[in-house]
Predict the structure.
Amino acid sequence: MTIKSSLSRLKGVGPVLEKALADAGIFTIGDLLDYYPRKWDTYLAIKRIQGIQPGLVSFEAKIERVSMRISHRNRRLTITEAILSDSTGTIKAIWFNQPYLAQTLIANNSYRFRGNYEYKNGYVSLQAPTFEKLSTAPVAQEIIPIYPETKHLSSSIIRKLISQCIDVSDQLEDILPSAIIKVHKLLPKSTAICLLHTAKTQDQLISAKRSIAFEEIFELVLTGLVIKKNIKTSKAVLIRYQAEVAKRFVALLGFGLTNSQKKAAHTILQDISKDVPMNRLLEGDVGSGKTLVALLACVMTEQASYQSAIMVPTEILARQHFMSSQKLLQAMGVKTVLLIANMKKAEKETALKLISSGEVDCIIGTHALIGSNVHYHNLGLVVVDEQHRFGVNQRSSLKGKAKTMPHVLTMTATPIPRSLALVVYGDLDVSIINELPPGRKPIITKLVKDMDRIHVYKHIDTLIDQGQQAYVVCPLISDSDKLGAKSVEGEFRILQKTVFKHRRIGLIHGKLKPDEKSEIMENFKNGKIDMLVATSIVEVGVDVPNATIILIEGADRFGLAALHQLRGRVGRGSQQSHCYLFTASDNFDSLTRLEALEKTNDGFKLAQIDLETRGPGEIYGTTQHGLLNLRLANIFDHELVSEVKQAAEAFINKHNLLEYSQLAEKVDGLRNITSLD
Ligand code: ADP
Ligand code: MG
């Protein structure tokens, strides 16, 4: 058997299981070994029944009797109950909708049970415990790998399969250079993988996880270093810093820049005044004023007679940026044009002409900016707003449209903690705006029970009376009985007919025609609409300072980062703003996440919470892009991260990556995904 062997070599793999494995991406023995456990359970200290307290428990007991019945209240629900006993007492276990258990569990046989002992529906019982027959149950305290499971693929099946082929892990080759393995006291890959599945002690497990985490981070960091090295060797255009221009720009604003804005702007203007291409990420919480910093760089670029392009993820945002910055840019002598997919043909043709002839200096638009019909005269600066919304290809094609390497500024309001940014985007320099413009009051956020809904509506109504505006956000566009969440269409209809029939309500979602969308946004901005019922289409960037209240339905359906973004639609002026969250979920984890929003307005803190609870992939929508291949590495393990960074830097300075073919291949693969290049 080799890592390439097919799974049919294993005992017990029939067509059904083979399909289930294939659906989980497992086709070969190698894939199976590469299927990491999701977590490791250690069998808890075995308790006697008498001493059991509510919570997760594990104990050995005999089945006294098992019964199965159909619920009185819900005819579709079957309830299986078992009375378990040991010499100290008895306890009741209960399972829902697993009628076959009445046959599986055999009276007078002993099992080891593991599950939650909790208060539910009026009494305390053991809720749906897992169990293994005592004769076959693993020895207490043993470490049990728990795998990502699917319907036909349980952890115990995976464990059985892996036990048949674990020896094949010997054939796995090291990807890390052997010197690094030695110096950093890592396990060889073959041992580490073997132990992930079979560790007998915590020490073994810890060193296996550390070895694999080291490799994961090493590959990412090395990729960043390689990209950075390449960028720094190409030449970019020089954009001379002119203090007088910056002063004039700030004077036009009518307010001063915050210290963070000044600092970020200073660094950026320094960067672009060198002939090394800038590749900088500007992070700043929602509403921290990143746009102005970017605009100042655009102005400076125009002064040096180069064009700049600002790419944003949605047409709404493109129009908004265009309208709000036009006056300022015009006053600075910067000619600006809007370029989006949905504009009148003649208008678009004019824009394209102006762009290619160099008659316009700053081009604001969506991914239309990278259309094959767009020819820039001399692009010197590329700004990508909300970079996480774009794929790498979109970002690099914009860059590719310049004749010489342009400077690149990427901006994000999905704050990535610096430690993560440095690992994931090792090729980037990072600036952070960590303060809000003065006078902003922290948004008051409340998780509201459905029965208190009426109070929230009253509050909204009072604020509208005072001339303020509101958002109502729902997760869906149309009603769908499958998902059971509120839709904007449904909510719009109801609110218009009932509580808010005396108000002007607007409806916006992604399926409307572009013209309709911009008309509605326009009306909302101009105060012709009191309340905007919207999907998360308004999540990024929309800036209507007079809107001071946002109500979010089905809040558990949004990620923390998205909720924070949505909340950022209010609190943009000097008025006290409110955010009300509704949820039908009683899931503990969801509620905890929502409570985090109540407690803090700090996007960085929330990002950290999200990272810790959900892992980096999900937050930045990168699981789909396969962006972060960190399966075991914990990005907050600063000690490991800095050890790896040093190792990677030393390595790249001393060695030729090409001599390490497997590593080079990995780096090449990652480069296509992580690079903002
Ligand atoms: P974001 O960082 O979320 O992109 P914006 O650039 O949209 O934030 O800025 C949010 C709002 O704050 C805008 O209306 C902008 O004009 C205003 N703003 C930006 N900087 C300042 C400042 N230093 N003082 C006061 N208002 C500011
Ligand atoms: Mg913005």
Q: What stands out?
A: The two ends are 42 Å apart (CA to CA).
